[in-house]
């Protein structure tokens, strides 16, 4: 990834992070191994992706199109429409792949249990699928369908969100050099002059300031700008009844700009997330990964990915944003994308005195 970026020192971030050797490819390869315990092999070739990857991309496009077309909101009309039929085909590709992996994983686990002790198995790093299967084996009420839905959610939800978060974080750092210098100093204290060392879990835990930078970036530009919920029981809010079955839309983008909770909300200020400034904050005032029992299943994994990738990029480059912050326009789809891209200049960090 970094080698690719070195060959393109003036680049549009979304393109840089979405091509064949980009973060999104690494993100999905890593995700597939961490979630399902297998590689989605053809992800390495972005020009010729697997049917699974193509189906994921197409489903996201269909969901976005359906949001703005009231004529296919009713499920019956949607299922009868050409778009709905294409959605069903894509969904079948996803389900067939995940169900195949679950079946094969069950067989593998059964074979391993005959040769390996439970103790040795627990010492290994296990994929999310293995943990879910283990939970099911231990008598919890978790069907194969439940497991498939959790795995599909993890894979689809994490498809673009990491790339979006990285793009906005680098864009904001490119406009706030004083903050970027602090990030560089923190990374230099952890890695020294070694720009190629892989970050360990201990290294990631030491990235306290970068953690705050990412959180502040997600406050201003949450990857998923709109969350949907269905009301299960009649609920009274401010004297008005929200009926059961009502569809509720929540916008983290606007919620995170409440000046009562976040003074000067348009200012990029990572210190908002220092422990002394955030411990007393209402936990529902900041929800980049949603909140409550249906929050994002992959939020901890996502934060680790972001820190790994951003620390690797920022060890190697100083970012200079070329687009004025007040001129950037974005589109709200499943994720919050820059409408015309984000142009930056990448300055190699050969001199450690910067």
TrEMBL record:
Record's GO cellular component terms: endoplasmic reticulum membrane
Pfam families, sorted: p450
Annotated binding of heme, by residue: 296
Reported cofactor(s): heme
Keyword Oxidoreductase: yes
InterPro entries the record matches: Cyt_P450, Cyt_P450_CS, Cyt_P450_E_grp-I, Cyt_P450_sf, Cytochrome_P450_Monoox
Main location: endoplasmic reticulum
Keyword Oxidoreductase: yes
Keywords: Endoplasmic reticulum, Heme, Iron, Membrane, Metal-binding, Monooxygenase, Oxidoreductase
GO molecular function: heme binding; iron ion binding; monooxygenase activity; oxidoreductase activity, acting on paired donors, with incorporation or reduction of molecular oxygen
Compartment list: Endoplasmic reticulum membrane
Family under the similarity heading: Belongs to the cytochrome P450 family.
Protein name: Cytochrome P450
Lineage of the organism: Eukaryota, Metazoa, Ecdysozoa, Arthropoda, Myriapoda
């Amino acid at each position: 990834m970094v080698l690719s970026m070195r060959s393109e020192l003036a680049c549009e971030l979304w393109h840089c992070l979405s091509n064949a050797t980009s973060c999104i490819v690494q993100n999905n390869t890593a995700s597939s191994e961490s979630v399902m315990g297998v590689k989605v092999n053809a992800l390495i070739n972005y020009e010729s992706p697997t049917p699974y990857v193509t189906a994921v991309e197409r489903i996201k496009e269909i969901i976005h199109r359906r949001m703005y077309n009231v004529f296919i909101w009713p499920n019956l009309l949607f299922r009868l429409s050409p778009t709905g039929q294409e959605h069903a085909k894509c969904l079948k590709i996803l389900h067939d792949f995940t169900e195949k992996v679950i079946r094969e994983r069950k067989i593998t686990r059964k074979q391993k249990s005959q040769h390996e002790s439970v103790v040795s198995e627990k010492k290994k790093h296990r994929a999310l699928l293995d943990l879910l299967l283990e939970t099911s084996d231990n008598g919890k009420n978790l069907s194969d369908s439940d497991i498939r839905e959790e795995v599909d959610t993890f894979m689809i939800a994490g498809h673009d969100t990491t790339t979006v978060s990285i793009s906005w974080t680098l864009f904001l750092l490119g406009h706030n050099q004083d903050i970027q210098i602090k990030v560089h100093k923190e990374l230099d204290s952890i890695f020294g002059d070694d720009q190629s060392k892989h970050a360990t879990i201990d290294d990631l835990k030491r990235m306290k300031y970068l953690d705050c930078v990412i959180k502040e970036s997600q406050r201003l530009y949450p990857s998923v700008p709109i969350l949907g919920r269905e009301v299960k029981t009649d609920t009274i809010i401010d004297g008005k009844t929200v009926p059961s079955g009502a569809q509720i839309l929540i916008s983290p983008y606007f919620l995170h700009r409440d000046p009562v909770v976040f003074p000067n909300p348009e200012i990029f200020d990572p210190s908002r997330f220092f422990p002394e400034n955030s411990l007393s904050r209402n936990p529902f005032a900041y929800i980049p990964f949603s909140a409550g029992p249906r929050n994002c299943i992959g939020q901890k994994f996502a934060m680790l990915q972001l820190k790994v990738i951003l620390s690797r990029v920022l060890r190697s480059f100083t970012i200079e944003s070329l687009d004025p912050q007040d001129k950037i326009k974005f589109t709200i789809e499943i994720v919050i994308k820059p409408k015309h891209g984000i142009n930056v200049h990448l300055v190699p960090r050969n001199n450690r005195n910067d």
